[in-house]
Each structure stands twice: as structure tokens, then as C-alpha cells.
Amino acid sequence: MPEIMNNPVPVLLVTNAMTLACAAAWFVWPALKKLPARDAMTLLLLPHTARFVGLLFLYEGATQNALPPEFAVAAAGGDVVAALLAWLAVIAVRRSWASGYSVAGVAHAFGLADLTYAVSLGTLHDAPADMGATVWIPALIVPLLLVAHAMGLSLLFACKRRRRQAGEKTRAMAAA
């Protein structure tokens, strides 16, 4: 058997992320652009509120064997923080707090960094070998979350660009 098949998780993560990114670019992004920014951002934050599922890495009954603690504790802890930040961002955006989109930016940036760190740790410590049923988290859920974070950050940059252009237009009209 080829060496790569000893740990198919990286292949599944990359190919699933590519598939989801294509679907997002072709179907989800055009639909999101038609929504008010508040609703679009909420949709992109909601999947991250469920990241408490990372706590399963700490529960040997959910995994085939105990996962390396260097991976399990960091991944579970990062997921809990990411989920709490996502909930805070949803509340801030939905209630139109002045800092709402800044909180969303922090949630997306932290979440993206945490997923990258957890995947790196999992690979370094060969965690997929002992994941059992939780292997679907990095194989399917992580790619979905990566794409949602990328779209959330893209939406934030697009909103900032629109505000800047509107401000320039207003200044140009005032100067005329």
C-alpha cells in the first residue's frame, strides 16, 4: 500500500477543501453578496459556533485510542475558544454593535489560525491513526470551516473596500 494511505486525512482535507471552495465560489458567494452584510456574516459565523465538537478529541470513547495530549488538548482548547469567539461575533453583528465586524474579524482570524495549528499538530503527532470516528472532523468538518473562515475574511475586506469607496465618493461630491 502506498505510504500516503497510512494517513489519508491530509489528502481528504485538501481535496474536500478544494471541492468546498469551488462550491463556495460558484454558488455560495454570489448568493451571499445579495444579502445584507449582517446576514451574510452571520451565516459565515454560525458553523463555527459548533466547534465545541473538538472536545471529542479529549474523550477516549469517541476516538479509537487516546490521542496524543500535545494534539488533543490544544485542538480541543482552541476549538472551545473559537466557538466562544464565534458566538460573541454573532451576537455583536446581529445586535449591530459598533465593534461587531471587528469581533467577527478576530473570530475568523483566530479560528483560521487555530485550525491551521491543530492540523499541523495532528500531523506532527500522527493523531489520525488513533482518531477512530472523530477522523471525520479533520477530513470533512475542518475543510468546511476553513472555507467559511476564508469567505468571512473576504466578506470583511469587501465591506471595508465598499465603505472606503463610498467615503471617497462622498468626499469627491463635497469637493465639487
Descriptive report:
This protein has 176 residues and is mainly alpha-helical. It is built from five helices and no strands. Helix 2 packs antiparallel against helix 5.
Helices and strands in order:
Blueprint: H1 9-32, H2 37-45, H3 69-94, H4 100-124, H5 136-175
Helix pairs in contact: 1-5, 2-3, 2-5, 3-4, 4-5
Task: Throw out a few tags for this protein.
70% helix, 176 residues, 5 helices, mainly alpha
Shape estimate:
elongated
Strand content: under 5%
- As residue ranges, the low-confidence spans are none
Order of helices and strands: HHHHH
Assembly state: single chain
Structural class call reads mainly alpha
Number of strands: 0
Helical residue percent band = over 70%
Mean pLDDT: 91
N- to C-terminal distance: 72 Å
Rg over C-alpha atoms, rounded to the nearest angstrom? 19 Å
Summarize the structure.
With 176 residues, the protein is an all-alpha fold.
